[in-house]
Structures are given as C-alpha cells and as structure tokens.
Batch of 3 targets.
Target 1
Amino acid sequence: MVLPAYDELSKMRVDFIFSFTQYEIDAIARANIIQIDGCDVSFCSLEDLIILKIFSGRAIDLEDVKKIINKNPNYNYQLVYNTLKELGEAINIDLISRLKEIE
C-alpha cells in the first residue's frame, strides 16, 4: 500500500508506504535515515530497492537493477535472493528467474 504525495513548496514527491507484510516491516527497519534540512528522511536500502524493482517486473525497473548492481557489486546478494524466493513463492511467480536474467 503506497500513498503518493507531492509537496508544492519543496517540489518534492514522496511515497508513504504502509506495511502489512513481514517483508515490508523488515524493509522499513533496514531503511537508511538521512538528515535533510534537519529532518530525518528514510530511504529504502539498496537491497530493498533491487527487490522492489525485480518484484515490479517492469522492463525499466529491471534495466535499473542492472545498473544498480553494476555500480554496487558488493550488495547483499543473499538477502535479495532469499527475499525474492520467499516473495515469489507467496505469489506464485518465479522472481529468482528475473534476478538470474539480470546477472
């Protein structure tokens, strides 16, 4: 569940994510917190960005993942693999094949 929002003053788009699954709860716990103008802002981890883009399956997202992995070869592959396997089994889609096609 994602609620997209846009702040006219800052011209910034923000997605509010409401967690209902264990994966979402874990992903939020792994978020990177960065201070921007004195405010803590949470950004998803590199691994969760990869997972979410592979999960979406859109061609542009899969292309993004190729670039992300090329620039960050030391990402936590095991976390990505295990999470995609679990999510894929839950929705009956082979997400591991998507990951393997990118490698």
Target 2
Amino acid sequence: MLILPKSCFLHVAKTGGSWVKKAIIASGIEYEDYRVDGNPHVGLSGCPVPDKFKFAFVRHPVDLYRSYWQFKMTHEWDVKNQLDMECKSDDFNDFIRKVLDKYPGCFGDSLIDFVGDRENEIEFVGKYENLVEDLILMLRDAGEVFDEGAIRNLPAYNVSDKTRFPAIYTANLEEEVRRTEINVMQRFGYD
C-alpha cells in the first residue's frame, strides 16, 4: 500500500503494482510505503487512511493466473504462501488444475478485501490492461500533483520470463478459469 498526499494505492498482486510504485516515484509524488508485517499487499480493511481517495488495479483472471505462474517460475515459489506450496508445479496446466481444485475463484475472492464489495467499492478501480492511462486518470481524480510525462515514458518493470515459461492454457482449463472467476469478469467488464 502506498499512501500519497491525497490518495492511497492498494496493491493487488500481479496487477502492475510494482510498476505503479516506480511511476509514482518517477512522477515526483511523495509517498509512504505502508506494510503490515512486511507485506505490501494490504487491503481496504487494513487501510490506515480511510478518508483518502483509494485506488487499485485488477486484471483479467486468465492473464493474472498466467502471470502469477510465470513470475513464480522466473523467481521462486514462496514457502510462506499456502497456495504456492500446495499448487506449485513446473507445468502450467498442472498448476492451474491444482488451483482450480483447491482454490477455485481465489483471485475474485481476494479482490473483495482490496476493492470492497459492490455497495462499498473504493473510489477507482483501474485495469492492468490500461495501466498507464488509468493511473494518470486516478491521480488526476485524486487531485495529486505529478509529472504525467514521467509516467508515460516509464518502461515495463518486474516482467517475468515469458519465453522460457510460455504458460499456454488448454481450452478446457481456460474455460474453467473463466467460469470460476465469472463474478470478477462481469463486475469489471471482462469478456
């Protein structure tokens, strides 16, 4: 979580948050890096500044799971993360099968703590697929003073090795991910 002068960024994993932090730094906005027990992924319920404009990003679930696996294969599986330990696999489709069996809909379920439910949603939920434009729009809406050009010119960051780890779904598994994450897809206008 990043606390800015007029807003608060809630960092949902694998939705561009590391790049957003770099963009905020590059654009000249002062911030406080707020963590709970070293974890930067602090949701709405843990927000110490509930009156500030809050924003976060979401990502298409099919792409999020692909990115998650690629990141873990590029870097490493987290021994403190229960999903990682129960679902890790060198085979992407085996990983997805395990996630679907043990944690169906886990991305959508985790989002509620970050963006709230439909009745109590945070002020702005952007899409990873429109990261640059949505971040600029969010910062403007929040009233932050920033260098827009610095954000527009910032290269990608924290990218996984997609060449070594291509993460190609079988048609059946991709359809099953879509079914288990249908609430997220409908709520945020995917497909």
Target 3
Amino acid sequence: MPRLLVVHHTPSPNLQTVLEAVKEGVAMVEEVELVLRPALSAGAADMLAADGVLLGTPANIGYMSGALKHFFDTVYYPCLDATVGLPFGVYVHGGDDTAGALAAIARITGAMRWQQVAAPLSLTGPPTPADLEAARELAATVAVSL
C-alpha cells in the first residue's frame, strides 16, 4: 500500500484545522497509508519509507517555520539521491503573506528533484470552508498520485 508522509508544523488552531482537513482528504483515497510526523521529529527514515510527501507549515516572518527548515536540513543529504521524483504537495498558512515561505520550499524541493503534483495551497487568516475544501483536495490529489 502506498504511504503518504505528512510533515507538518502545526502550532496554531488555524493550522490544526487545516491539518484535520488534510487527514480527511487522504481518507477519501482508498489504499493509501497516512503517516503524520511533526517536522521536528520527522527524519530520513520516514522519508525513505514514503511514496510521497505533503508539507505543511506556517509562514513566519516571510519564511517557512524553523521546524520545517530543520526537517529539510536533516533529510537533505541522506535522501537527496534516493527520493528523486518523489511526488509532493505543500500548504502554507500565514497572517497575510506566504510568498517567501513558498519560494523557499520550492527552492529546496527543486534541489531535491522532487515532483510537485499539485499546486501549492496558500492560506491567510482564519481558514474558510473553501480553504478547508482546498486542503482536502490537495491531500487527495497528492494521495492519488502515489
């Protein structure tokens, strides 16, 4: 069964709501195992066991969370060659801007030669019902790609 790894930093109620929608989206796809890992505890073994990854982070001062950056620093060299072509998606939540976080994630995932299988989801402010539906669709799209 394909395994989707969700690496997330979820420090706020808004991001927790989005994470719950992500879990619902993956549950809509049959025959996919969901593995949730907080960014500070996810590592190379998690990545090497995954068939795809969904990244979730707040935008902090125009950048991804330090926790997600730590994850990338931890897995970069051990996973660089072994995860080429890995399907991935990303969601970012910010107070008013997510562009810097999305750009940084795009640079790192590009260097790792992962394959983005869904448009990035950029959310600002409290998640609306449409935002949560978009999070479900993102998760389902990544899950289906495995």
